[in-house]
Backbone:
C-alpha cells in the first residue's frame, strides 16, 4: 500500500470547517483513499473513502486532487466531539488486500 | 450499520496468567477478522489476521504461541494472551471484514493491564 503523510496535529475552532490534508504521492491507479478516525480509547471509526471523484456523506467531504497525489478531508462544522486522531490510508479494496496499515495520523483538537 | 463488539472492555490480570478477549460481529458474518495492538500515544499495529476455520496469519515479530487466535465461527474470534507480562499491557482492538464491500468494522477495544 502507498505511504501517506499527514500533519502531526491541528487545531480548529468549534463551528468552523476542519480541513485535514493528506499526501499520497505514490498512490497507484487502483488504490482508494480511506479516512478513519479514532476518538480517545475507542476503536477506529470509518469516515469516508474515494477513488478519484470527490465524495460527501453525512460525516464529511473528501476532496481528491486531479493527479490523486493528495487529498483533504473536510468536516464542515466541527464540534467538540470531532476531537480525535484522523488517519488517511490508501489501499486497493479487493480480495487479498484487506489489510489496513495505520500511520501516525493527525491529532485534531476542536477548540471551544 | 455493521456492529462489532469486544469483551471485556477492560481487564486487569496478574503476571503469568492468561487472558481471553472476544470479538463478535453482531449483524454480519465475517470470515476474516483482524487483531491490532495499540500502545499509548502510538498508532494501531496489526498483529494477525484471523480466518474462520483455518489458522491465523501473524505479522512479523508477533509470537503466535503467545497470542493464540481462534476463529471458530463466522461471528466470533478470540485472542488469548498467554502467560501475560507487564509489557503486554496495551489496548487490543479487533475488526471484522464485511466481504461484500471489503470494509473493516472495528470493535471498541479492550484495555489490558498486567500487574
Residues:
Amino acid at each position: 500500500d502507498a505511504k501517506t503523510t499527514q500533519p502531526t496535529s491541528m487545531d480548529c475552532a468549534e463551528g468552523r470547517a476542519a480541513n485535514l490534508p493528506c499526501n499520497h504521492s505514490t498512490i497507484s491507479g487502483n488504490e482508494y483513499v480511506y479516512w478513519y478516525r479514532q476518538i480517545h480509547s475507542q476503536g477506529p471509526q470509518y469516515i469516508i473513502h474515494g477513488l478519484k471523484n470527490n465524495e460527501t456523506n453525512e460525516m464529511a467531504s473528501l476532496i481528491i486532487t486531479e493527479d490523486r497525489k493528495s487529498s483533504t478531508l473536510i468536516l464542515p462544522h466541527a464540534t467538540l466531539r470531532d476531537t480525535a486522531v484522523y488517519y488517511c490510508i490508501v489501499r486497493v479494496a479487493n480480495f487479498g488486500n484487506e489489510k489496513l496499515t495505520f500511520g501516525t495520523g493527525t491529532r485534531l483538537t476542536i477548540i471551544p | 450499520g455493521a456492529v462489532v463488539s469486544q469483551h471485556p472492555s477492560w481487564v486487569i490480570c496478574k503476571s503469568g496468567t492468561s487472558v481471553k478477549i472476544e470479538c463478535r460481529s453482531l449483524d454480519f458474518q465475517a470470515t476474516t477478522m483482524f487483531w491490532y495492538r495499540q500502545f499509548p500515544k502510538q498508532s494501531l499495529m496489526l498483529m494477525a489476521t484471523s480466518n474462520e476455520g483455518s489458522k491465523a496469519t501473524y505479522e512479523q515479530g508477533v509470537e503466535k504461541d503467545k497470542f493464540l487466535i481462534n476463529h471458530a465461527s463466522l461471528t466470533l474470534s478470540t485472542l488469548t494472551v498467554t502467560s501475560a507480562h507487564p509489557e503486554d499491557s496495551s489496548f487490543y482492538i479487533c475488526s471484522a471484514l464485511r466481504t461484500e464491500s471489503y470494509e473493516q468494522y472495528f470493535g471498541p477495544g479492550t484495555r489490558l493491564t498486567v500487574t
